[in-house]
Amino acid sequence: MDTLATVRPASGGKDSQYQSDYAALRGLHSLANDTGITILIVHHVRKMDAEDPFDTVSGSTGLTGAADSTIILSSTGEGKVLYGRGRDLAEFECAMDFDPGTCRWSDLGRPCDAFVSETRKAIRCALKDGMIHPKEIAEHGDLDYDLCAKTLQRMTEGGEIEKGGRGHYRLTPDPHF
């Protein structure tokens, strides 16, 4: 259903925002369960950013609480990211690309792998190949040592990689696999 507003019942005015939002989906949720079908509802996100993408759903948490699963397509500075979470759905996050010629979306993998600078790609490649020290990482990726060291620091602070000890780095395991 595109969009929720087209099928949403009018609010009684005395309900809280949460109760109103939850009630808006309760009937559709029952219909889906009773008939064994999936009902996909398109809804808007707010423009203000949030640490948790599910906090960007326009309205209260009653909407995400009533739905069995919530999937959000958002725009970041690097590109499009699809987030998903639900009762029978393992949480996921993947970078996406839209091909206007075929009108199809493609899964590009983890955003930290898909939307990175050439320096970060070279560092990740070196780490995958077993390099752990900044000097060998820089040499493996044909990078300037100072740029490599600073990028390693930023990647560690951002949680992309881990520092395993003095001068030892490793990739952060993907929690979704």
From TrEMBL:
This is DNA repair protein RadA. GO terms for biological process: regulation of DNA-templated transcription. It comes from Boseongicola aestuarii. Signal peptide: none annotated.
